[in-house]
Specification:
The protein is mainly alpha-helical. It is built from four helices and no strands. The longest helix has about 50 residues, at about 1-50. The chain is flat. It starts with a helix and ends in a 21-residue tail after the last helix. About 5% of the residues are buried.
């Protein structure tokens, strides 16, 4: 009888674990659904803001530099929500915006050479 009680306790524990993991999957499913809905809203807004060629250019940039594309997308959406954009933005205007962003996002690369000194190094003489 003791074995049956222990086995039943293990079953109950395992059932509780499975239910908890199923509950977590339900929460992650809701989060995934919310993210998909937000992505769809963003795509709808960008389609309303950009013409076909500008949208294609932005998608190409997103493949190469996703962080820069996100900055441009957020900037466009903010301008659209503030009613600073009237009509659709074409490819030349998008290129100007990208140039402005690239001017502000200058990354400097610095290379340091660290030579290791050896006792027999001829430079120390």
């Amino acid at each position: 009888m003791g074995d049956d009680a222990a086995l039943e306790a293990i079953r109950q524990k395992r059932l509780a674990e499975m239910q908890a993991s199923a509950g977590n999957q339900g929460d992650s499913g809701k989060m995934m659904e919310e993210q998909a809905r937000q992505q769809e809203m963003k795509n709808t807004m960008l389609s309303a803001i950009l013409d076909q060629k500008a949208r294609a250019r932005l998608n190409t940039i997103a493949q190469v530099k996703p962080d820069r594309a996100r900055k441009v997308e957020m900037m466009l959406i903010n301008m659209y929500q503030r009613r600073q954009i009237m009509g659709k933005i074409g490819e030349p205007e998008l290129i100007k915006m990208l140039e402005e962003i690239s001017k502000t996002d200058t990354k400097t690369t610095k290379v340091n050479f660290d030579r290791r000194r050896v006792d027999l190094d001829s430079d120390s003489d």
